[in-house]
Amino acid sequence: MTPLAPFRLAPVLVERPWGGQRFADYGKVLPRGATIGESWELCDLPQHVVPTVDDPSSTVVDGPFAGSRLRAVVAEATEALLGPVAPTADGRFPLLYKLLDAREHLSVQVHPHSRYVAMHPEARLKTESWYIVDADPGAVLYLDVVPGATMAQVEAAMGTPGIVPLLHEQPAVPGAFHHVPAGLIHALGAGTLVAEVQTPSDTTFRIYDWASEYGRAPRQLHPSESIASIRLHPEEAFSLAPSASVGVRDLVRSEHYWMREHRLVAGSSALVRPPGPTILSVVRGTVVLGDLQLERGDTAIVPASSDVSRIEGHAATAIEIGF
């Protein structure tokens, strides 16, 4: 087996009514005037799963597969890329990684858990994690419901502004981390820019969409699906405050993926290497990964067969993701 060197990915930009133009500060070339809410840094989904996104598979920037879609690398170099990590049932890369620019509040939403998916094969389980890259002063996140709120109250407020007082609000702080398991009610607040790692799914059930507050066109809500998916106060949900310490910090280890934060001052940091591939995303500064120089906003894959095991940087922060 010929080793496969690390390679960068070009993002898939997705327009959303709540998005903006902030990704231009992270090296993205944006259409003029478009409200780009999501930059899919690493994606490999079948078209039928996300019919509103044209060809939702990342484009490879470097190496022998440059110009090809990620799905071609998975198909043609499965072992070199993934090692022992299995692709999805439809032969795709088993992770989705995005940057989100919330110029306005995102919808209050929930994603289906395993029990719902078992009974509804058209849905895909979606667990995700947020790393707060940037946030305006006063920006907030909505995670779960306030203590004492009941499922009956949530059901009665479904689709109305009455849901908002039931939501647990907390400040959005750059460098903080939040794990959002399937079934947790959540919403990103206006003024946040977030790195989101998730299982490869786009199944989202909207509870409330802030349409009247922002003058946005109403979008479909999903009350019955939401009620069947909501889990109040799931024990897997947790948050971590920002860290000022230099070095490596574990963020989460779930059954679907793990994440680490690298804070580099002047020197190098070890990556987790084989058996599987890792993803590296730079959120601050410049990082050297093998023969690649990655700037803020760049995302690269370190294939399972690669011998690159360290990164270097000065005044830089990167997120490492693996299986």
Q: How would you describe this protein?
A:
- It is a single chain.
- The protein has six helices and 20 strands.
- Strand 17 and strand 18 (292-294) form a beta hairpin.
- It has two domains: 7-240, Jelly Rolls; 247-322, Jelly Rolls (Sandwich).
- It starts with 6 loop residues before the first strand and ends with a strand.
- It has 323 residues and is mainly β.
- 11% of the residues lie in helices and 38% in strands.
- Strands 1, 4, 15, 16, 17, 18, 19 and 20 form an eight-stranded antiparallel sheet that branches. Strands 2-3-5-12-7-10-14 form a seven-stranded antiparallel sheet, with no helix packed on it.
Write the layout of secondary structure elements.
Layout: E1 7-10, E2 12-20, E3 36-42, E4 59-60, H1 70-76, H2 78-82, E5 96-102, E6 108-110, H3 114-119, E7 128-135, E8 140-145, H4 151-157, E9 167-171, E10 177-180, E11 186-188, E12 192-198, E13 205-208, H5 211-214, H6 223-229, E14 238-240, E15 247-253, E16 258-270, E17 278-289, E18 292-294, E19 299-302, E20 310-322
Antiparallel strand pairs: 1-4, 1-19, 2-3, 3-5, 5-12, 6-13, 7-10, 7-12, 8-9, 8-11, 10-14, 15-16, 16-20, 17-18, 17-19, 17-20
Question: How do you describe this structure in short?
Answer:
The protein is mainly beta and 323 residues long. The protein is built from six helices and 20 strands.
